[in-house]
Amino acid sequence: MTYINALLLLLSISFGSGRNLLSKRISSASFGKKKFFSQQGILFAVGTVVLLILRGSSLKEVAPITVVYSVVYALCLIISQWCYTMAMQKGDTSICSTVFSFGFIPPIIFGIVVWSEAVSILKFIGMLVVIPAIILSSFSSDNRNKVKIKLSFMIPIIIAMSASGGLGIMQKVQQRSEYPDQLGAFLIISFAISGVISLISAMIVPSDNDKILSKEVLSSSFVGVFFAANNLLNTTLVGRLPSAVFFPIFNIGVILMSLILSIVLYKEKFTKKKLVILLLGVTSIMLISLS
Hints:
By secondary structure, the chain is mainly alpha-helical.
């Protein structure tokens, strides 16, 4: 691996972790509230501006099919980010980021079913390992140590994870199309659509007294910067590095960095449950990457 690729990989891991940590900061607003949609609109709008600055020239010529792919990608972006923010309101950052990282599973299954990609025993076991990790993450204990399933967390994080998988699928579809060079336009249009839908939602819902604070505007803006930059960096690195190198380093790096930062910044406790979920996640990623 060259020094440039190593630097880009470190930046990508940092942006992915930063997006996780700052999504926690904007998770106080409940879904359906004007504040929630406003924050989402800001992050997608800022992400669009970042992509325009970096890849704006790609909009000179855009094929109709690229626009179609962008619309589907935008829907996945919205569902993924909205539900991830909702899950962050109910769960710890480290657990959310670990379960969310399992979004790599749907693209693998899609590739096997649609493109007849090879599947090995190790890859199959790696996908199965995800199941107990997700189930374990949904359990919580009350003050009487009574274990219960936390549906308010489990439902949005599973939807967010699945939508994240949809992003991976659409990235593959776009890169396998006749216009893989239109990736910049593909991302810009998707982020722009997501921003418009989020801001329209903020305008439609009734007003309330829960005003968005300046620090929340700043956090939303940085989520947008990290989200957009992370999309571009990952696409670049996938083309430069073998999947067996990029895939485990990025996903495990984001999980570990998000865990460390959540403990340092948010004082979240590192429990035995988190350790088991972390080990299951890392095991799954390694099994799939090495197969």
